[in-house]
């Protein structure tokens, strides 16, 4: 039986906006974990079949197929191609899916899945802003308007709609956010991320966690919407970062003397209401568990992207999942969310946490623009 194995995963620190990584060109930012992963696994880079990289804001320095420019910027063989993909915030998790599917199909043996986003250099929404300035139409055409009208479509509105639907109060959101910072600060202090991070530009640790934050400080922040419940404290941080994951077939493991660290159990996708936008991890997780023949209680570690606090809170409630197993080292509220990189960052964190704790199964999911979600379940070996 053909299997897809994870044989390595590495990431940069996640930098704050205008922080320590903000002066690094996006292609060089993306090149760093690619080169580090090749060095750490010892694999012949010329044997890699493809580089699949997620990037959301493919604008300016993040254009021209950054998967290819990053690989070449890392000084790696010209013979290896690269492709850049966009599934919004799930772009590099989708890169992992495509890499694993290439291996599972028997047409590829070594595929490098990665992600990058420099939100300091290319601000979120740059492509839409540029289109408007050029007099071009918005992404939503007549067919969309016929189906959904002209109502506001945004992640901020979607998060507020989730708060209303599940009845989350501002206090509940802030308590979740506070716990995310506490977990992240503890993980950094405990060295939980040390082995997975390749330091860059003098930055050795994630810059986002605020160990000194308090519920009182959070309560004093301005609401993002006048009639809403969310603040900057209960939203993911704007960040810079990159990560890479190497997927191998059994044949590649034997040929290159690699050590499989995890097996890909299942890969699933789901769509949900694009107005709510952020709810698809719920049906996608149910679908993945059913396909894998597992229950939520079988999962030892969960990484769900904290785009906004109501996303993991609603997921926990609907799945009846254990909060202690979910984002045990904090999430994007504390650690940041470099859009196109986050999927590969989460997989890197998931793999290392399973190894650190001796857990067997890990599940990763994240909400994505358009009301979509990926779910990946892996088994530690």
Automatic annotation (TrEMBL):
This is Acetyl-CoA C-acetyltransferase. Residues 5-249 form the Thiolase N-terminal domain. It comes from the Bacteria. PROSITE patterns: THIOLASE_2. The active site is at 89 (acyl-thioester intermediate), 337 (proton acceptor), 367 (proton acceptor). Residues 259-380 form the Thiolase C-terminal domain. NCBIfam families: AcCoA-C-Actrans, PRK07801.1. Belongs to the thiolase-like superfamily. Thiolase family. InterPro entries: Thiolase, Thiolase-like, Thiolase_C, Thiolase_CS, Thiolase_N. It holds the Pfam family Thiolase_C. Keywords: Acyltransferase, Transferase. GO terms for molecular function: acyltransferase activity, transferring groups other than amino-acyl groups. Signal peptide: none annotated.
């Amino acid at each position: 039986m053909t299997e897809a194995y994870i044989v390595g995963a590495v990431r940069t620190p996640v930098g704050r906006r205008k922080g320590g990584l903000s002066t690094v060109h996006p292609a060089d930012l993306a090149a760093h974990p690619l080169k580090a992963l090749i060095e750490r696994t010892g694999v012949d880079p010329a044997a890699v079949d493809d580089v699949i990289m997620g990037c959301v804001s493919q604008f300016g320095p993040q254009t021209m197929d950054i998967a290819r420019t990053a690989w070449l910027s890392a000084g790696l063989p010209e013979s290896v191609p690269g492709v850049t993909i966009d599934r919004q915030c799930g772009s590099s998790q989708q890169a992992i899916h495509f890499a694993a599917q290439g291996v599972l199909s028997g047409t590829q043996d070594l595929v490098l899945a990665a992600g990058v986003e420099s939100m300091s250099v290319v601000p979120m929404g740059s492509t839409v802003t540029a289109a408007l300035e050029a007099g071009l139409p918005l992404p939503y055409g007549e067919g969309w308007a016929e189906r959904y009208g002209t109502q506001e479509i945004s992640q901020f509105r979607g998060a507020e709609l989730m708060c209303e639907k599940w009845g989350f109060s501002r206090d509940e959101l802030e308590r979740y956010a506070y716990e995310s910072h506490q977990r992240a600060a503890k993980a950094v202090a405990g060295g939980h991320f040390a082995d997975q991070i390749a330091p860059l530009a003098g930055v050795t640790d994630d810059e986002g966690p605020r160990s000194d934050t308090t519920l009182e400080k959070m309560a004093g922040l301005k609401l993002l919407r006048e009639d809403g419940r969310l603040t900057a404290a209960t939203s993911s941080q704007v960040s810079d970062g990159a990560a890479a994951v190497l997927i191998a077939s059994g044949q590649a493991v034997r040929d290159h003397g690699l050590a499989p660290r995890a097996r890909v159990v299942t890969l699933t996708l789901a769509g949900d209401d694009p107005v709510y936008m952020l709810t698809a991890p719920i049906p996608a997780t149910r679908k993945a568990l059913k396909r894998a023949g597992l229950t939520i209680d079988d999962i030892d570690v969960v990484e769900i992207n904290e785009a906004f606090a109501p996303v993991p809170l609603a997921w926990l409630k609907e799945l009846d999942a254990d909060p202690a197993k979910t984002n045990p080292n904090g999430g994007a509220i504390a650690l940041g969310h470099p859009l196109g990189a986050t999927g590969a960052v989460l997989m890197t964190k998931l793999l290392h946490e399973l190894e650190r704790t001796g857990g067997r199964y890990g599940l990763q999911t994240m909400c994505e623009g358009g009301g979509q979600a990926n779910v990946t379940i892996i088994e530690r070996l």
